[in-house]
Amino acid sequence: MCYNRRMISYAPFYRTLREKKITEYYLIYKQGFSSNTLYRMKCGKNISTKTLDELCFVLNCGVSDILEYVRDTE
Asked: What's the whole-model pTM score?
């Protein structure tokens, strides 16, 4: 289960996937991304800059299409 409150949001990643009609299945089984990596993103956990670079390359997008900073209001 995902319970972390983080200031980095991967919401843009899921919007980018929808816009480009790319599935998580494609990323895992055709591009070789770890299912654990996608689970970590879904839970708002950290990913490496190497993974971020690979996602940008595969999706042909910028970093802002993968993640965004959300200021904690508390």
From this structure: 0.87
Q: Is 10:66 a contact under the CB 8 Å cutoff?
A: yes
pLDDT in the model for residue 70: 87
* pLDDT per residue as tens digits for the range 46-70: 999 999 999 999 999 999 999 999 8
Check: CB of residue 53 under 8 Å from CB of residue 60: no
The Cα–Cα gap between 4 and 11 comes to 15
Complete domains list, the chain, with CATH? 8-69 (1.10.260)
Q: Can you tell me the distance from the alpha carbon of 39 to that of 23, in angstroms, rounded to the nearest whole number?
A: 14
